[in-house]
Amino acid sequence: MAPIVSVSNLSKTYASGFKALKGVSLDIEQGEILALLGPNGAGKTTMISIICGIVNASGGEVTVGGHDVVRDFRQTRAMIGLVPQELTTDAFETVWNTVSFSRGLHGKKPDPAHIEKVLKDLSLWDKRNNMLRELSGGMKRRVLIAKALSHEPRVLFLDEPTAGVDVNLRKSMWDVVRRLRASGVTIILTTHYIEEAEEIADRIAVINDGEILLVEDKAALMTKLGRKQLRVDLAHPLERVPDTLSSYNLTLEGDGNCLIYDYDTSADRTGITSLLAALAEAGIRLKDISTRQSSLEDIFVEIVGAER
Ligand SMILES: Nc1ncnc2c1ncn2[C@@H]1O[C@H](COP(=O)(O)OP(=O)(O)OP(=O)(O)O)[C@@H](O)[C@H]1O
User: Fold this and answer.
1) d(CA 97, CA 150)
2) Global confidence as pTM
3) Which value does ipTM take for this structure?
4) Is residue 301 part of a domain?
5) Residues in domain ABC transporter (predicted)?
C-alpha cells in the first residue's frame, strides 16, 4: 500500500540561515502510530509544520494521501488533524461550540452526531456546555484533540500530547490514541517521554540536528540494539573478578556483592550457561539472579550520543 504521508529529501533553511532540516526522507504507513523522537531543536516541529502546510520547505517534497502539500494544500490540509501543545481558543466559549466551530473552519458541513461521538470518545460529553476556562488542564488537552478530530482527519499529528500531564491522564490519553488507531487514523506523535514511545508506538523515528538517524519497527529496534544484563548476587563478596572468569565481560559492583554480565540478545549464544558453570567451578555461591533489558531510553541516548 502507498504510504499515507511521504516525505522525500526535505530541507528547511530559515531566514536566519539556520538549517533545521537537511534532506529528510520518511514514509508513514496508513494506520500506524509513529513516534518522532529527538532532543530539543532537532527539527520535529519544523517537519510537522511543513507537512501541515504551515511552514514552507526550502527543498524536497511532501505528499499526503498522494497529494502534494503545496500544490494541493486544501486537499491535504483537510486530511490532517494537528494537535498543538497549547490551547489558544476563546476561554469563554463552550466545549461544544469550540469543537463544532473547528469543523466549520475546515470547510466541513455541520455534523452534530460526529461531534457527539468525538466528545464521548474523549470523555468530554459531560462538559460539552462548560466554558473552556472551567476545565482542568487535562480536559483542555482533550479539547485540543477533539478539535483536531472534528473534521474527520485521516492523519493526526500530536505534538507532545502528554507534556506536563499526570500519570493517570497520560494512560487515558494513550487509550484514546490506541482507539483512534483502531478506527483507522494514522498517528504521528512527538514526545520527550521515551516510555510513551515505548508504550504506544509501532515504529520509532529518531531525528537529531535536522537528520533522521533511524526509522525502525519498535520491536525490531529493541531486539537489534537492545542489550541485556545478567545480575548475579553473590552469597559472599569478592575482592576482584577471578582470573578464571576473565574471558567473560564481567564487572563487579555493590562492594563486591554482585557480578554484572553484559550480553547481546541477538547473538546466537549468550554465554549464560557456560558462565554459570564457570561460576560453580570457581566455587562462587550465588544468592540470586536477575536480568535487565535495556530500555528504549538507553538505546536513544546511545544513538544520539554517538552522533554528538
Ligand atoms: N522561525 C525560525 N527561525 C529560525 N530558526 C528557527 C525557526 N523555527 C525554528 N528554528 C530553529 O530550527 C531548529 C529546529 O526547531 P524545531 O522547533 O523544529 O525543533 P523541535 O525538534 O521541534 O524541538 P523541541 O523538542 O524543542 O520542540 C531549532 O534550532 C530552532 O531554533
Assistant:
1) 11
2) 0.78
3) 0.94
4) no
5) 5-234
